[in-house]
Each structure stands twice: as structure tokens, then as C-alpha cells.
Design brief:
Strand order of the largest sheet: 2-1-3-13-4
Distance between the termini: 70 Å
CATH superfamily of the largest domain: Periplasmic binding protein-like II
Strand content: 15-25%
CATH topology of the largest domain: D-Maltodextrin-Binding Protein, domain 2
Mean pLDDT: 91
Helix content: 40-55%
CATH architecture of the largest domain: 3-Layer(aba) Sandwich
Radius of gyration: 23 Å
Length: 307
């Protein structure tokens, strides 16, 4: 009888261990896309992997456009995006039978910045930004924009053509997405843009608010005049939309990939912690109602309509 009881106990222990093993998450989650969204994704991924040590999360920064190119052919599970998916990308996804779930995760205020060593630029208008950045712009010196500014060459820094930040900025400032002068220092890595701008008193650049907010010792954000008064990017003006270059940030999840338990667990974890991680990385949290909707959309696997 004792042997039988011991055997039964051992069998029960083995069954419990096997059940636990079955629920243990493993595998790899592939993410790529926006360099703006990357700090949030990186922070979420680090915390998730502390909890799920056998899941490997890899995240690249090929830009929103570069990320979508991989996403719509099924190369990655999740794309970080600083703009909504466009019609061409959605059509390519449909052609490849890729269904996706769109989830907003934070707000950003695209920041126009100069070095702290720049002492003359206090505000800038949307018209002046367009004059500097429009396609075939003739602006070479600061004085070409405003005669009161120095007769010094402008050094321009901004994201590359695969960036969602580039798409957003050119559409809002120049009136058409991707229409921009090309004679500037471009990079999909916002950290390189930060370095370029902070090292020159005559530099001007633009990138996500989080990168500015973590470099306020060396950079200064320029308040933008859209109609009557200059508005600087901060948590209040970005969240209420009064800052002219405010925008939501997203992750897009491949619906088929979401069937994998490690991906489902990761996205659930992301949405549960997005507000905290957005603030920790110097971005702006969404209203709680938007996170509630995002959680419900992912819970029901609500796909984005393709237009």
C-alpha cells in the first residue's frame, strides 16, 4: 500500500510538473519599425523577459516604413509605428493574407530642436519650418529664413525616408507626406540626430519628444507658432493636442502571430504597462479609456479594416 501511495504521489508530482512545463512560455518574438517607439518597446521587452526568461524578444529600428515592409510580408510579428498604416501597405498585407490589429500605446509631440549653444532662435512658425524643409528649398543660411537671424549656414538633421516621423512631419509641415528637401543629415537612429544637433550652434533637427526629453541638458525644444502664440511640447500640450506636432504612437500585431501564446502574453503585458513605460521613457500616456479600448480590441482580436 505504501508503495502504491508513493507511486501515486510521484505520478501526481510528474503530472503537475508536466502541466507547468506546458504552460511555460518559450519562443521568439520579432519586432521592428519606428525608432521613436523603440524606447517604449525596449522598456516593455526588458520587463517582460524578466518575467518570461525563456522568451526572446528582438526589436529593430528600421523606421516605420521599413518595419511595415517586413510586417506586410510576414517577416515580423509586431511593428512599431509612429504613424498609421497607409493604403499601399494595407493592400500589400491583404495580398499576403496578413491580418493585423492596430493598438495605440502613447502620445508623442514631434519636437523641433536646437543646441543649447544656440542663443538666437526663440520661436519658429509653421511657415518658417516649411520654408526650411520644403522640397527644393533655397534656404542655406539662417538669414534666408529671417533677416534678423545670423548669416550662418544651417545644419539640418532629420529622419530618413523610411521613418514615420519623416512622413508625419512632411505631411503636416510641407503639406504632402515624403515631400522634403534631401540635402540634410538623415538617420533612422534618433540618437545620431541628437548628437548631430547638440554639437553645433547652427544645427536644427526634429525627432520624437522622448529623445528631446532625455537630452534637455544639451538640447532646447523650439516653441512653434501655428496661429497666434508659440506652443512648446510638454505633457499637457501633447496630450490635449494644442501642440501643433502632436500624434499617437502604435504597435501593429500580426493576427496569426497573436495565436502563439508568447506573442499573446507579450501584447497583453505591453498594454497593461504601456502607460507606465511611456512615462518612464519620457513620452505621454494615453487617456485610460484608450488603453481600455486597446485591451478590448486585442482581446477580441479586432482587425483593422483595409481600405
Amino acid at each position: 500500500m505504501r508503495f502504491s501511495l508513493a507511486t501515486a504521489a510521484l505520478a501526481m508530482s510528474l503530472a503537475t510538473t508536466q502541466a507547468a512545463a506546458k504552460t511555460k512560455l518559450t519562443g521568439q518574438i520579432k519586432i521592428d519599425g519606428s525608432s521613436t517607439v523603440f524606447p517604449i518597446t525596449e522598456a516593455v521587452s526588458e520587463e517582460f523577459q524578466k518575467k518570461e526568461k525563456d522568451v526572446r524578444v528582438t526589436a529593430g529600428i528600421s523606421g516605420t516604413g521599413g518595419g511595415f515592409k517586413k510586417f506586410v510580408v510576414g517577416e515580423i510579428d509586431i511593428v512599431d509605428a509612429s504613424r498609421p498604416i497607409n493604403e499601399k501597405e494595407a493592400a500589400e498585407a491583404k495580398k499576403n493574407n496578413i491580418e493585423f490589429i492596430e493598438l495605440p500605446i502613447a502620445y508623442d509631440g514631434l519636437s523641433v530642436v536646437v543646441s543649447k549653444s544656440n542663443t538666437f532662435l526663440k520661436t519658429i512658425t509653421m511657415a518658417e519650418l516649411k520654408k526650411i524643409w520644403e522640397k527644393d528649398s533655397k534656404v542655406k543660411k539662417w538669414s534666408d529664413v529671417n533677416p534678423a537671424w545670423p548669416k550662418e549656414d544651417i545644419k539640418l538633421y532629420g529622419p530618413g525616408a523610411d521613418s514615420g516621423t519623416f512622413d508625419y512631419f512632411t505631411e503636416v509641415v510641407n503639406g504632402k507626406a515624403k515631400e522634403s528637401r534631401t540635402d540634410y543629415s538623415a538617420s533612422e537612429d534618433d540618437n545620431q540626430l541628437v548628437v548631430g544637433v547638440k554639437n553645433s550652434p547652427n544645427a536644427l533637427g526634429y525627432f520624437g519628444f522622448g529623445y528631446y526629453a532625455t537630452n534637455t541638458k544639451s538640447l532646447r525644444a523650439i516653441p512653434i507658432v501655428k496661429t497666434d502664440k508659440p506652443i512648446e511640447p510638454n505633457h499637457t500640450t501633447i496630450q490635449d493636442g494644442s501642440y501643433p506636432l502632436s500624434r499617437p504612437l502604435y504597435i501593429y500585431v500580426n493576427k496569426k502571430a497573436a495565436q502563439r501564446p508568447e506573442v499573446a502574453a507579450y501584447v497583453d503585458f505591453f498594454l497593461a504597462n504601456a502607460a507606465t513605460m511611456a512615462e518612464e521613457t519620457k513620452f505621454v500616456r494615453l487617456p485610460e479609456t484608450m488603453y481600455t479600448t486597446a485591451k478590448a480590441d486585442f482581446g477580441s482580436r479586432k482587425t483593422k479594416a483595409v481600405h
